[in-house]
Design goal:
Blueprint (H helix, E strand, L loop, with lengths): L3 E8 L2 E8 L2 E7 L12 E10 L4 E5 L5 E5 L9 E6 L9 E4 L4 E2 L3 E5 L3 E4 L6 H11 L8 E5 L8 H19 L7 E4 L4 H8 L4 E4 L6 H7 L4 E4 L2 E7 L4 E6 L8 H20 L3 E6 L8 H13 L5 E6 L5 E5 L12
Parallel strand pairs: 1-14, 6-8, 11-12, 17-18
Antiparallel strand pairs: 1-2, 2-3, 4-5, 4-7, 4-13, 5-6, 7-8, 9-10, 10-12, 15-16, 16-17, 18-20, 19-20
Helix pairs in contact: 5-6
């Protein structure tokens, strides 16, 4: 099926959303289970608990007996309330990472307490459109010290839709920032998978039913670590410490086979990590290639991740010739047995 479709359904009783691009699964979101740690984007009133000596951090109490880790805790003392936002999923057995630089993110705008001013995404290059968007938002009376960022998805959107969303999130920010209570509490829920899909994915026809649109078949392929890319094969295997990606050339023994396989890996890797919900440290065990070809591989990898929504740092080469990445844990790993 040509074009974009956003498909809604539930898996294991959890709301889920799939982005199909020309009949191919391009992105997938699954809501966290009820007993999961707080999800990225959630905003809490947390209470400082105990400093981590030598690390510059502070353990913080969040609701239901949970603990959060706040780095950069200079000047804080135990017992203080602080507004924090979850930045990524916690690794098993660890505290939830949080920041005090909170934002309120919508489809068209991002409200930024502590960063005043109105700015337009650099992806919007049409000058007339920039002026139109700024005119819409300059009509608002901004709270002191609060700013707005216009997202690229606002390009071409109606004035009513943009203004309504900006008004909602400015009001929400003002309510949260004026909070004066002193007990741990969830103040803003990040939303489920379908809410996030509506916020972050391109506008598209929304339909229901994974089976009818081939989503279940695509998810079944993610149950195995093996990914076939023509003659190239990847094996993507999460371990407790890192995600290992092994690149094999298959039956191609030509002099350029290693470079071809590694370029195929570079193009496919962002989508595979996105669909599998994998983050943290990622190590690529690449096919053998000449030292002079490394720059071409790095350029291909950088280009591929530039179009990916999840923040990923290309760290570089190890002495053994592996390539390392560090990827934000914005999603939970895809559970096995969903299909």
């Amino acid at each position: 099926m040509k074009g974009l479709q956003i498909v809604h359904d539930t898996l294991a009783g959890r709301p889920a959303a799939a982005l199909m691009r020309d009949g191919v699964l391009d992105d997938f979101l699954l809501s966290a289970p009820d007993d999961a740690p707080p999800v990225p984007g959630s905003i809490f009133r947390a209470i400082t608990d105990r400093p981590l000596k030598g690390q510059g951090g502070m353990m913080m109490k969040v609701p239901e007996g949970g603990m959060a880790l706040f780095r950069g805790a200079k000047g804080l003392a135990p017992g203080q309330p602080l507004l924090v936002q979850v930045t990524s999923y916690a690794e098993a057995g660890k505290a939830v990472p949080v920041t005090d630089k909170i934002i309120f993110k919508g489809r068209y705008v991002i409200v930024t307490p502590g960063a005043a001013g109105i700015n337009v995404s650099r992806q919007i290059r049409d000058e007339e459109e920039k002026v139109r968007l700024l005119d819409i938002l300059h009509s608002f009376e901004m709270p002191e010290g609060v700013g707005l960022i216009v997202r690229s998805s606002a390009e071409g959107a109606s004035e009513e839709a943009i203004a309504s969303e900006a008004e909602h999130f400015l009001g929400l920010a003002q309510a949260v920032l004026s909070d004066g209570d002193t007990q741990p509490e969830l103040l803003v829920d990040a939303g489920d998978a379908q809410d996030l899909a509506a916020r972050d994915w391109p506008e598209a026809q929304t339909v229901d039913g994974f089976e009818a649109y081939g989503v279940l078949d695509a998810l079944a392929l993610l149950e195995t670590p093996e990914v076939r890319l023509g003659g190239t094969t990847l094996f993507i295997e999460p371990t407790r410490a890192l995600v290992a990606v092994d690149v094999n050339t298959g039956g191609d023994f030509s002099p350029a086979s290693g470079l071809k396989a590694n370029l195929a890996c570079a193009r496919a890797l962002p989508r595979q990590l996105r669909l599998r919900g994998l983050g943290g440290q990622i190590t690529l065990d690449l096919a053998p290639m000449a030292q002079k070809d490394r720059r071409q591989f790095e350029q291909a990898l950088r280009s591929a991740f530039k179009a990916d929504a999840v923040e990923t740092a290309l760290v570089g080469w190890t002495p053994l010739g592996h390539f390392e990445l560090q990827r934000k844990r914005e999603r939970l790993p895809l559970p096995k047995g969903l299909t």
